[in-house]
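> forwarded from #structure-qc
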């Protein structure tokens, strides 16, 4: 098989375009003797004559034109590769793997992906649903590039492995059955519900959030039922089996459930994004972080 040298092929291509060795040398910032030497070496590598004398000038042989006809698609593909690399360097292209806890996917990740499709369609986001604490394990292992989690589940800010980016303060509303006596009460607070059976998981972040919120309001919640999925929790609330705290960004809300904002003791969960330290400077990752920030706070900057 012939030995193909792209640099020498580019010189041959330029000679075809410029017509003379001197003009080729000027275009490529070479000397005429260097151009001639490189083309002589290329002819030896390919095993065919590439130039023939025409008076005081040279012209391309049929073999040279055949070589260029077959290498033109290569040059075209290299131009595309250059353009793709430039887009990648500007953050206009690339793949970013995002690990996110379940309610963050529809509330933050999906709007961010939609926005990126409109502004940077060559930035691809691959989503992996993971519980809040698991997202950090995936990030540390290099299985995702960006993790969305709850601040309560995040490693310490002093952890040298990660950089944290606050995204959202997500208020927690209380879910009540429509016929509950307090469903339309004015100024509802958590303490008004101290005697109610509460529905939350037996362990994990949502159990901790519910217990901490109630304890901050001055009581320890009685766990009437244990569930972790919002479909199950809201179905039980609708059936009058208890009440529950629900993040405002949670998906799957039911028509048969009343969601009430709480008063002064309203709890909030904080959502953060995290990247491996230094990785946030990667252009595509920075694009995704920007889109996530906008999804969390779509109001224009003032």
């Amino acid at each position: 098989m012939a030995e193909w040298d792209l640099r020498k092929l580019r010189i041959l291509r330029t000679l075809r375009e410029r017509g003379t060795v001197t003009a080729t040398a000027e275009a490529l910032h070479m000397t005429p003797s260097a151009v001639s030497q490189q083309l002589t070496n290329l002819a030896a590598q390919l095993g065919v004559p590439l130039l023939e004398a025409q008076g005081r000038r040279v012209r391309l042989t049929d073999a040279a034109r055949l070589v260029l006809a077959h290498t033109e698609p290569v040059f075209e593909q290299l131009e595309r590769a250059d353009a793709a690399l430039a887009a990648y360097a500007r953050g206009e292209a690339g793949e970013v793997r995002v690990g996110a806890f379940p309610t963050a996917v529809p509330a933050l990740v999906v709007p961010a992906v939609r926005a990126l499709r409109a502004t940077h369609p060559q930035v691809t986001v691959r989503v992996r649903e993971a519980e809040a604490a698991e997202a950090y394990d995936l990030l540390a292992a290099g299985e995702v590039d960006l993790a969305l989690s709850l601040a309560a589940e995040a490693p310490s800010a002093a952890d040298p492995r990660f950089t944290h980016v606050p995204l959202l303060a997500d208020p927690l509303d209380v879910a009540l059955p429509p016929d509950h006596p307090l469903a339309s009460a004015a100024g509802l607070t958590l303490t008004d519900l101290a005697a109610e059976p509460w529905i939350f998981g037996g362990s994990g972040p949502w159990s901790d959030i519910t217990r901490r919120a109630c304890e901050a309001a001055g009581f320890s919640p009685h766990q009437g039922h244990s569930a972790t999925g919002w479909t199950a929790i809201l179905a039980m609330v609708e059936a009058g089996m208890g009440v529950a705290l629900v993040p405002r960004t949670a998906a799957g809300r039911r028509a048969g459930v009343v969601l009430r904002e709480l008063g002064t003791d309203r709890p909030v969960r904080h959502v953060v994004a995290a990247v491996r330290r230094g990785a946030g400077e990667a252009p595509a990752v920075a694009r995704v972080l920007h889109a996530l920030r906008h999804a969390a706070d779509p109001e224009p900057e003032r």
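QC bot note: The chain has nine helices and eleven strands. The first strand starts at residue 51 and ends at 54.
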